[in-house]
Specification:
Aspartate Aminotransferase, domain 2; alpha/beta; about 375 residues; globular; single chain; about 15% strand; 16 strands; Aspartate Aminotransferase, domain 1; three-stranded antiparallel sheet; seven-stranded mixed sheet
């Protein structure tokens, strides 16, 4: 099933290797993609009596491979038409790896939204699949996605379309009409759609929320989890949801070769979080709204050095550095002199001078102030 190791092996995961080197040494992480993490004390304070009892009486044995029934039911409650039996609990990154292995064979053609989290296209390449990038393009007012370009990319060999909305790293969100058109095109070509929805539920206007792929497309596989929208990446809990039981069965069988089952404490805390989901999501959206206003002011004050393209949804944006030198050099200077870590766009394999801006953490204003000190010192 794998590509010939002599001709291809996965390259280093650029973003994750960069973060492994710098994230926990930097004083500020200006490019964080997740929302402000809850403490265990904060999460326990939100627990209802049943989930609190489940935590206190928890046994630390093996768990059900597909996930605890209460957790699967809580996840299913996030969707309009899905049931607990349509849900497989796993680590989010594991979900990408497993789903690609379940869906693809060498030679299958894949179209993937780009730029993207590297594994969303790299795992397919590792499996011997040609990958075509469906690229977002910057405009003076935001990011643009060309549906006609998608149609041109599709061939009789295309098996899978990989999507990510709200989009990481740009914050792009298609309109409901565009979302329907994308899925209609996938249906015409009998494609599977792998939909990374890790930032779903962080729409700034609830009217902009798109239906989950697993709710509206018979070959849709939705990936989500607690890492981004819920601010609980340390639990390492995510899920795949699909109406296609054959695909879900293959994914469950592949999980026997990875984690086998999930962490019992993480599952218990995940049930707690999902039952308090409205409270947690409202908290995180409020942080983002404050940070959006702060970022807009900062980039307006420094319009000669940056192009600010406001995101439409989610907890990240992708400004462009237009000052002197490269964005990579500017990011390194900001890290060295002010302890502020930024993720330059080349870590997403994207040419140009963009960098990711995280909008989900409370210290954004302090981190931008540090960046401002660099700009003032350089006379920008």
């Amino acid at each position: 099933m794998y590509a010939d190791a002599e001709t291809y092996s996965p390259p280093p995961f650029k973003l994750e290797r960069y973060l492994a080197q710098h994230e926990f040494q930097a004083r500020y992480f200006l490019s964080a993609s997740d929302c402000e993490s809850l403490t265990l004390r904060e999460l326990l304070a939100l627990a209802d009596p049943a989930s609190r009892a489940g935590w206190e009486d928890l046994g630390l044995g093996y768990t059900e491979s597909a996930g605890h029934p209460a957790l699967r039911a809580a996840v299913a409650g996030l969707y309009e038409t899905r049931r607990a039996d349509d849900v497989l609990i796993l680590a989010p990154a594991e979900g990408i790896w497993i789903a690609m292995h379940a869906l693809l064979s060498p030679g299958d053609h894949v179209v993937a939204l780009f730029p993207a989290y590297q594994s969303l296209y790299e795992v397919a390449r590792f499996l011997g699949c040609p990958v075509t990038q469906w690229s977002l393009t910057p405009t003076p007012t935001g990011w643009h996605l060309d549906l006609d370009q998608l149609a041109r990319h599709l061939t009789p060999q295309t098996r899978l379309l990989v999507l990510n909305f709200p989009h990481n790293p740009t914050g792009y969100q298609p309109t409901p009409a565009e979302w329907t058109a994308i899925l209609d095109l996938a249906r015409q070509h009998e494609l599977y759609v792998f939909s990374d929805e890790m930032y779903r539920l962080l729409e700034y206007d609830p009217a902009d929320r798109l239906p989950a792929a697993c709710d509206v497309y018979e070959r849709g596989i939705s990936l989500s989890g607690l890492s981004k929208s819920f601010g609980l990446p340390g639990l390492r809990i995510g899920w795949l949801v699909t109406p296609d039981r054959a695909v879900l069965t293959r994914c469950a069988a592949l999980k026997d070769y990875t984690t086998i089952c999930n962490s019992a404490p993480s599952e218990a805390l995940a049930v707690m979080a999902l039952r308090a989901g409205d409270t947690i999501l409202a908290r995180n959206r409020a942080i983002i709204q404050v940070n959006l206003a702060t970022a807009a002011r900062f980039f307006a004050e420094h319009a000669a050095q940056f192009t600010w393209r406001p995101p439409r949804a989610g907890s990240v944006a992708f400004p462009e550095w237009t000052g002197g030198g490269s964005v990579a050099a500017f990011c390194q200077m900001t890290l060295d002199e002010q302890g502020v870590l930024m993720v330059p766009g080349h870590l997403f394999d994207l040419p140009g001078e963009h960098f990711r801006l995280g909008l989900g953490r409370r210290n954004l204003a302090a981190a931008l102030d540090r960046m401002g000190q660099i700009l003032r010192k350089e006379g920008a």
